[in-house]
Specification:
By secondary structure, this protein is α+β, with helices and mostly antiparallel strands. It has a single domain, classed as 3-Layer(aba) Sandwich (Aminopeptidase), CATH 3.40.630. Helices cover about 15% and strands about 30% of the residues. The strands form two sheets. The chain has a six-stranded mixed sheet, covered by helices on one side. It has a three-stranded antiparallel sheet with strand order 3-2-8, with no helix packed on it. Helix 2 crosses helix 3 (about 145-155). The chain starts with 7 loop residues before the first strand and ends with a strand. Mean pLDDT is about 80; it is low at about 130-135.
Length: about 160
């Protein structure tokens, strides 16, 4: 049986806000979510420039979604979700805030609320999935009721082009 590649969740849930909040001005910024289809486009998000992993190297069966500001489409975080039809579940492969929002690693933070949004996106994508079995000791799940609670808090638009 081939080994299953595992990812990592590197998210700090800093503040629960319906949209992103600018840490300097306190302004609330509306967000949009879109799927990144191009592995070439993912070349922009590399470990060497603060994204923790080389996003273009994640497994092909992981779909990558970007959380961006609605007014200018600047990406504030990425989340990778793998749909497993055999177990009727969607797995959060990796989630990462943009370097400008990672105060733990870079000392400052432009926007708060990214981490919670990334979990909400994963919950949104897996809403019809059903958890069946635990594959390893580090796995966790968000049940349907908690997924609904996440989606009631976080607001974003899907931009499916």
């Amino acid at each position: 049986m081939p080994a299953i590649e595992q990812g990592c969740i590197d998210i700090w849930i800093d503040e629960i806000v319906p949209c992103l909040k600018d840490t300097v001005t306190g302004d609330i910024k509306e967000t949009v979510v879109f799927k990144i289809e191009s592995r070439t486009y993912l070349n922009k998000f590399q470990k060497s420039n603060g994204w923790h992993i080389n996003w273009n190297e994640i497994p092909k069966n992981v779909e990558v979604y970007a959380l961006a500001l609605k007014d200018d489409n600047t990406i504030q975080g990425l989340v990778g979700v793998r749909n497993d039809k055999d177990s009727h579940a969607a797995y959060l492969h990796w989630a990462c805030t943009a370097p400008q929002n990672n105060k733990h690693e870079f000392g400052s933070q432009k926007y708060v609320g990214v981490g919670g949004h990334l979990f909400a996106i994963a919950a949104d994508k897996s809403f019809l999935a059903e958890y069946l079995v635990m594959l390893h000791q580090y796995q966790f799940f968000i049940d349907e009721e908690q997924a609904k609670n996440l989606l009631e808090v976080y607001h974003y638009e899907w931009n499916e082009t």
